[in-house]
């Protein structure tokens, strides 16, 4: 069966302010630009007010805030009319909690006897006795007793049902807890029938681990009882008053409320307890996103039915799978998805570390493109300049500049704090394993906990994929596990080395058993969050040598990549995953591609950058807050980060700078955090930014510095853009980035896109077809036309010659000779498309000298300038004379092929 591979994709972020109908309006524009498929953010029913869609509450419905099913149908129809296909982002790993999630509501109401208890990854038998057969619900704003004493927890009636209300949220009550209210109400109403119903609710089977038949029978009995109660209230309306009186009695007695709450299938708690006591797997450290057991076939079917139907009917041509590393068995998940959608284009948001490649036995087309992004970023920086930037950074900040040491420290910290409950769960399992082995039984819980944290922190990748059930382990995974264990043993010599060896043996299946398998599978689900929260969301905001290198899946401690390494990566992709996604900006990138492109220039001028920030720091020194005996605020690392942010995103309005810096510093967790705001630091930072924005001498110098690197940054942008559209893979364009876009991390990169402007620019661009078209485009560089021109022309060529870019096309590096050969990336796609892109153009200083690229024989037209060249040795200077990059297409005699 033929796979439905997109030619290109355009990512749209759908939400209540940009709905299906809004998206439908730009369908023709996207087709005219050259896009083949819209790539939509998740749009199944999400939590109210969701701005991203990853917090799904109902897999069987289309998000009502986007317009619901009717608007979705209009949207899909409009895409079809415009000649566009569609790819959807789906979220199998987790769901959002709340009353809108009927699965979760049922679990809170019925506990382990819920029909959906097995849908979620809940530990019903944790180490703490008080949490057994209960779910911790950490939503209170203070200690439970204080909130209760202050009247912050109330029982309320909603029709014939009762709920607990606290912290602005509602929770169902267990049917078995109703007798305390209904029996009192029966006395007030003098109703024997209500008294009977009260007793009957009390006789429902207690929630426990039971077979599905018993669970369904209990559910049936519960429904019958509520039906009888509803009928009674309809016949005798005074019953409502009696229930309200009984409920008021309950709420007036704190001990009675406490007893009532203890009868529930959940335990209300202060939100801060979640990090250490939570009894369910989350998406990273987000309490409101609970892990799904999608490895169970009935859970898969329930949560994928609508999407699979869309794929079957051709409404969708493919899916992007969010966070597959959270799944218990990603390979098996993809296998099941592939069986149900054999012709769909499937990519996974798999984050690969440098040197790591997607598993070739996964039945998917590739990743969501971060690996490509980081390879491109790496080839656009100067290695020797990166080394000099290390000195610049160390001199300015006077803090450690070993990224790997910082990353390890932050991974340990996040394991101790935000992910503490996950560590506790793993510790409990491993302690049981040790207890069953007489040679290991003396390891204490504290030792085991420390060892687990250390091994997880020593992993150099997000996770391994060992499968005990199938006894699958690759040599690659065995090596990763062994390296992590040896690293941990070296770092923690205060812990018996045998414990690390035992952990290694369990993780490599040298020691087997039911508990061992459970530990192994859960540990593999744990290391990804450790990497994500410790490195992506913490270390990347602490180590700031060149912030443009701090992207998901990157190693900011590396000093860049050579042209040969870039070619090697692309050749590998064409061989193994030619239809993977390639991207430069996403909804999750820390900085847009244009910001990174400009920041890359700093690696070519490290000395000038270092001198500038030292001068700026002296200029702005008076704006730092001071107290006796305390270092001035903001600290030097924050100041360094601030200057790079301004350089990369200038002109940056002050309100955006303020919001971004606050988020970045809370993520860094060095001076302030999301959990514990340091008001003194945050106020000092805000004032510092305000003063620097109003200080004309600094603003003038900043503007001058940016102007000096602006052109080189734009050349980098065009180079990486052309690479994305011609390298192996399916290029994705993030909304709005078809022209210059200087956005920072979300929510900054999710601001409204001015499509009227982009439509006008594309229209004007398409009128520029004469011999001087490139000159006209370059004359309007400030408007972003060179970027849109490059994208449009590349997409036109991809549409015209799909075989040159497809799975069967070749990727062949071209020979570049001459003094500046290392400043050129050149390659052939298929037999008739050539890309020539410059790199490190500041160091080049415009002098290509004798540098030539050898083209295959034939006549070639530069699709960006219209110029004609003949095959053989061609001067790079001439190729790039009229436009910064070159896209050549071979012509047959008599014109285009």
Please provide a written account of the structure.
It comes from Tunturiibacter lichenicola. It is an enzyme of class 5 (isomerase). Residues 19-772 form the Glycosyl hydrolase family 13 catalytic domain. This is (1->4)-alpha-D-glucan 1-alpha-D-glucosylmutase. InterPro entries: GH, GH13_cat_dom, Trehalose_TreY. By secondary structure, the chain is α/β, with parallel strands linked by helices. It folds into 5 domains: 9-93 and 292-349, TIM Barrel; 102-286, Maltooligosyl trehalose synthase, domain 2 (2-Layer Sandwich); 402-542, no CATH class; 602-708, Orthogonal Bundle (Arc Repressor Mutant, subunit A), CATH 1.10.10; 754-891, no CATH class. Helix content is 47%, strand content 14%. The protein has 33 helices and 27 strands. The strands form 7 sheets. The chain has an 8-stranded parallel beta sheet. Strands 21, 22, 23, 24, 25, 26 and 27 form a 7-stranded antiparallel beta sheet that branches. A 3-stranded antiparallel beta sheet has the order 6-13-12, with no helix packed on it. Helix 21 (514-542) packs across helix 26 and helix 23 packs across helix 25. It is globular. The model has no long low-confidence stretch (mean pLDDT 96).
């Amino acid at each position: 069966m033929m796979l439905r591979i997109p030619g290109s994709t355009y990512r749209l972020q759908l939400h209540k302010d940009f709905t299906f109908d809004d998206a439908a309006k730009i369908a023709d524009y996207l087709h005219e630009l050259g896009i083949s498929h819209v790539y939509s953010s998740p749009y199944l029913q999400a939590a109210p007010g969701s701005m991203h869609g990853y917090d799904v509450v109902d897999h069987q419905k289309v998000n009502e805030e986007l317009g619901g099913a009717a608007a979705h149908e209009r949207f899909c129809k409009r895409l079809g009319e415009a000649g566009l296909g569609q790819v959807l982002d789906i979220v199998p790993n987790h769901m959002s909690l709340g009353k809108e999630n009927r699965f979760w509501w049922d679990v809170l109401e019925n506990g382990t006897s819920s029909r959906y208890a097995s849908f979620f990854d809940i530990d019903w038998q944790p180490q703490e006795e008080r949490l057994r057969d209960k779910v911790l619900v950490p939503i209170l704003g203070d200690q439970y007793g204080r909130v209760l004493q202050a009247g912050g927890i109330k029982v309320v009636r909603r029709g014939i049902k009762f709920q607990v209300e606290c912290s602005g949220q509602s929770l169902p009550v267990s049917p078995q807890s109703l007798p305390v209210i209904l029996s009192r109400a029966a006395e007030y109403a003098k109703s024997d029938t209500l008294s009977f119903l009260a007793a009957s609710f009390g006789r429902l089977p207690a929630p426990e681990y039971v077979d599905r038949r018993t669970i369904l029978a209990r559910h049936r009995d519960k429904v019958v009882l509520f039906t009888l109660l509803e009928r009674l209230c309809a016949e005798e309306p005074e019953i409502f008053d009696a229930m309200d009186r009984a409920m008021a009695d309950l709420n007036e007695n704190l001990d009675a409320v406490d007893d009532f709450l203890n009868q529930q299938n959940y335990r209300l708690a202060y939100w801060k307890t979640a990090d250490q006591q939570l009894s369910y797997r989350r998406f990273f450290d987000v309490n409101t996103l609970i892990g799904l057991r999608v490895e169970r076939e009935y859970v898969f079917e329930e949560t994928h039915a609508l999407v699979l139907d869309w794929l079957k009917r051709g409404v969708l041509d493919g899916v992007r799978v969010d966070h597959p590393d959270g799944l218990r068995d990603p390979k098996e998940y993809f296998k099941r998805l592939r069986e149900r959608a054999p012709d769909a284009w499937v990519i996974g948001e798999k984050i690969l570390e440098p040197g790591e490649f997607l598993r070739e036995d996964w039945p998917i087309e590739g990743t969501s493109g971060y690996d490509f992004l980081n390879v491109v970023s790496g080839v656009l920086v100067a290695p020797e300049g990166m080394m000099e930037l290390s000195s610049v950074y160390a001199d300015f900040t006077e803090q450690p500049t070993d990224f790997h040491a910082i990353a390890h420290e932050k991974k340990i910290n996040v394991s101790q704090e935000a992910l503490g409950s996950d560590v506790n769960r793993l510790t409990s399992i491993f302690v049981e394993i040790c207890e069953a082995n007489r040679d290991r039984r003396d390891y204490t819980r504290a030792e085991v906990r420390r060892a687990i944290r250390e091994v997880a922190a020593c992993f150099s990748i997000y996770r391994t994929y060992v499968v005990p059930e199938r006894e699958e382990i690759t040599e690659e995974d065995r090596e990763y596990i062994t390296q992590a264990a040896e690293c941990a043993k070296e770092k923690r010599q205060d812990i018996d080395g045998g414990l690390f060896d035992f952990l290694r043996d369990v993780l490599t299946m040298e020691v087997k058993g039911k508990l061992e398998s459970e530990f192994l599978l859960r540990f593999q689900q744990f290391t990804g969050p450790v990497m994500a929260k410790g490195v992506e969301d913490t270390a990347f905001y602490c180590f700031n040598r060149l912030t443009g290198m701090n992207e998901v899946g990157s190693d900011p401690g590396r000093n860049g990549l050579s042209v040969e390494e870039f070619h090697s990566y692309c050749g590998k992709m064409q061989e193994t995953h030619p239809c993977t996604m390639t991207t430069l900006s996403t909804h999750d990138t820390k900085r847009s591609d244009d910001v990174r492109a400009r920041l890359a220039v700093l690696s070519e001028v490290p000395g000038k950058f270092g001198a500038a920030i030292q001068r700026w720091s002296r200029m702005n020194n008076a704006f730092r807050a001071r107290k006796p005996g305390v270092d001035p605020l903001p600290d030097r690392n924050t100041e360094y980060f601030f200057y790079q942010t301004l350089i990369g995103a200038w002109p940056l309005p002050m309100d955006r700078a303020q919001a971004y810096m606050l988020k970045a510093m809370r993520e860094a967790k060095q001076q302030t955090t999301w959990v514990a705001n340091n008001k003194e630091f945050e106020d000092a930072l805000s004032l510092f930014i305000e003063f620097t924005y109003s200080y004309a001498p600094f603003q003038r110098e900043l503007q001058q510095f940016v102007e000096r690197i602006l052109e080189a940054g734009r050349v980098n942008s065009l180079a990486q853009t052309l690479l994305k559209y011609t390298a192996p893979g399916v290029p994705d364009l993030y909304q709005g980035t078809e022209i210059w876009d200087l956005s920072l991390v979300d929510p900054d990169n999710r601001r409204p896109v001015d499509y009227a402007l982009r439509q006008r620019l594309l229209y004007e661009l398409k009128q520029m077809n004469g011999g001087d078209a490139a000159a006209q485009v370059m004359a309007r560089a400030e408007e972003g036309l060179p970027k849109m021109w490059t994208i449009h022309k590349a997409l036109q060529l991809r549409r015209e010659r799909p075989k040159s870019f497809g799975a069967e096309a070749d990727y062949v590096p071209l020979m570049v000779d001459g003094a500046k050969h290392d400043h050129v990336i050149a390659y052939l796609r298929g037999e008739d498309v050539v890309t020539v892109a410059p790199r490190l153009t500041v160091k080049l200083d415009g002098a290509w000298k004798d540098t030539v690229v050898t083209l295959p024989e034939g006549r070639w037209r530069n699709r960006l300038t219209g110029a004609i060249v003949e095959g053989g040795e061609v001067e790079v200077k001439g190729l790039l004379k009229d436009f910064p990059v070159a896209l050549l297409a071979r012509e047959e005699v008599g014109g285009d092929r």
